[in-house]
Amino acid sequence: MGSTIPKIASFPFLIGSTPVGNIAVNNAEGGGKEIWLPRWDRPTYLCEIKELFSAGRIEVHHRTAVRGIDAIQAISQFGVDRGIQGFRRIGLFKGRTGGDKYLSAIDMGNFLVRRRQEVDLLADIDVWLSRFREKAMSKNAPTSSGRTLRKLEAAIFALCTDRVSPRVQDVLIALGECEKAISKSLKWTKESSVRPVSPLSSRWLIDADDGSPEFRLASSLASIYGRYLDRDGNPVVIPLRSQMEPVHTWLKEGHLNVAFSDDISRDIVWLEGDLISALNRIMSRRVMRTAQSGCRSYPDHAWINADLGDIADFIEGRIDIGRIEDLLWGLILLDWPSVPRNAIMRRSFSDSVFPGASYSLLKLCFAGQNVRNLEIPIVQEIHRRAVLGDSFTAMRLAERRLRGSGLSTASESSKISAKLMERTAAALLFPIDAYQVNILANKVLRPDLESMRNNMVIEIRSD
Predict the structure, then answer these.
(1) Same domain as 132, residue 88
(2) Would you say 216 and 307 are in contact if contact means Cβ atoms under 8 Å apart?
(3) 317 and 170 within one domain
(4) Residue ranges making up the domain that contains 166
(5) Inside any domain, residue 457
């Protein structure tokens, strides 16, 4: 079996160059190599030095480092023994005359040996990244794949060297950009045997969590799944990821597996650069699939539920939707079945402004669960009218649906702007839990008299 390790001169700690971390490297012509020279902070025995240089290699993720990006990971992840304080990175680059001579050497900085736990996450993508790098650097690779590879390596370098704060979120976004690029070049992807990004462990979600509403909302979207029926009547689980790129997923021993699909499914309705329209297209497709599957009510659930306060901010334009889109492409790569339900911090209800009545009425018709123990049959026209900006008709249809299910509404149909209604329709895709469904019900429905009577009987008996 052939080796993917490039053939280079035999010299201790000499590896291929990665053009990140120094502007001079990015401007160097002809590529090159790097030497990572160890530095000690105490006297060292000659026998230790001989042993170190006889090995002459740096290891990362149980393999020999072959590029600069591997070396910086090894230093940040495992450190080294024998009292080494750090490494001096020296770049060797070819001049304009060509040939095998290296005519310039560039000091690319000193890197201290320092343990960074966040770097352990990169083990999840080590095999995939080695393969992707090999293919993205080939002559027939799309320009987008090489560009996203450079962004990813720059984000990894920053994660390994940033002393201020972890950069896990930046790496996650860069991985999402790689996934997007290769999913748009399926012919090259298949010919080159490039696979989707390997499913990421739940630690990515935890370590990338910056407490922002954008992160919470993107996480809730990325974790959506629903059980539907295919054309032959067989049950099928549709995660949000399969509506953004041509992949099929399956579970094996409790973990997610993913591969590119040979057929372009009609479920793929993602629209680049317009998150509101993209979410509405996804929601419309899921509502249609619900009806086609013969499901009476909306079947979607999620591993991470959104918060009503964040949803209100989304509807009213207080959210950076571009950031949500960037995060979403990275977060769909997680192994969601292995993610704990309460993996990230929720927003405090004390600082929340809940969505208005228009959202509340519509969401109760697409809650993904019973409302006051009653099933709400799905009506496709409600969401369709909301997407068109027809707020009056959408809300009137929602009120009729709820009343027809045995729930009396406390509000009357009103009219809001078409733009606000379109954002409200998109917000219906965000999953919420039973507690929040009850909050919405208490807000727009008349009191449940039977429940009130039961509570009164319980109170009387307790007295």
Answers:
(1) no
(2) yes
(3) no
(4) 121-198
(5) no
One domain for residues 375 and 235 = yes
In total, how many domains does the chain have? 3
> What pLDDT score was predicted for residue 265?
84
Looking at 71, 100, 115, the residue that finishes a domain is: 115
Task: Quote the pTM value.
Answer: 0.85
Q: CB of 220 within 8 A of CB of 304?
A: yes
pLDDT in tens, 80-107: 555 677 788 888 877 655 555 656 778 8
111 plus 240 within the same structural domain: no
- Pair 260, 408 in one domain: yes
Judge whether 354 lies within some domain: yes
Successive 10-residue mean pLDDT values, the chain, 463 residues: 45 75 50 79 72 63 76 70 74 64 73 81 92 90 93 91 77 97 91 93 94 96 94 90 94 90 88 95 97 92 95 96 97 96 78 86 96 96 97 95 94 82 98 95 84 48 51
Whether 6 is in a domain gets the answer no
Give the model confidence (pLDDT) of 274-333 as tens digits: 999 999 999 999 999 999 998 899 999 999 999 999 999 999 999 999 999 999 999 999
What is the predicted pLDDT for the residue at 6? 47
Distance between CA 174 and CA 249 in Å, rounded? 22
Q: Domain end: 115, 133, 158, which one?
A: 115
Residue 208 in any domain: the answer is no
